[in-house]
Amino acid sequence: xxxxxxxxxxxxxxxxxxxxxxxxxxxxxxxxxxxxxxxxxxxxxxxxxxxxxxxxxxxxxxxxxxxxxxxxxxxxxxxxxxxxxxxxxxxxxxxxxxxxxxxxxxxxxxxxxxxxxxxxxxxxxxxxxxxxxxxxxxxxxxxxxxxxxxxxxxxxxxxxxxxx
Length: 164
Prior knowledge:
This protein is mainly α. Helix content is about 65%, strand content about 0%. It has helices spanning about 10-20, 25-40, 45-55, 60-70, 85-100, 100-115, 120-135, 135-150. Helix 3 runs antiparallel to helix 4, helix 3 packs parallel to helix 5 (about 85-100) and helix 6 packs antiparallel against helix 7. The longest helix is centred in the first third of the chain and has 15 residues, at about 10-20. Mean pLDDT is about 80; it is low at about 160-164. This is Pentatricopeptide repeat-containing protein.
């Protein structure tokens, strides 16, 4: 664990942050991050993805987006080993899908492509679901056809719907 740059303290923080976020206590989870930053402890993309997912589950996407935009200020930069990844973007797209905001979801998808992140099958499943929820069946079927032809390929994990 330490060889991979994860200290026991970071691991414990992640467990706490994950638990608090799943209980809808994202502000409490953020306090752990800020206290850690004050002590010089840095967290990785897993931690920030957990927080963004927590905000999305609370349907407070403005805070998820704010955290995404602040990641650089919180030492989440490519030159320090990581940047927002496909999970970050998938969480945000899914959050907008749940709020039935297709325009914002597609804007986030454009960021995925612009930032050179390879969208995985989970991103496409969320987008296809979003199109169906918005009654845009032709768009959903066209995207499904494109993904079926050129990948990425679904696996058993990605085909299981997300449960709250």
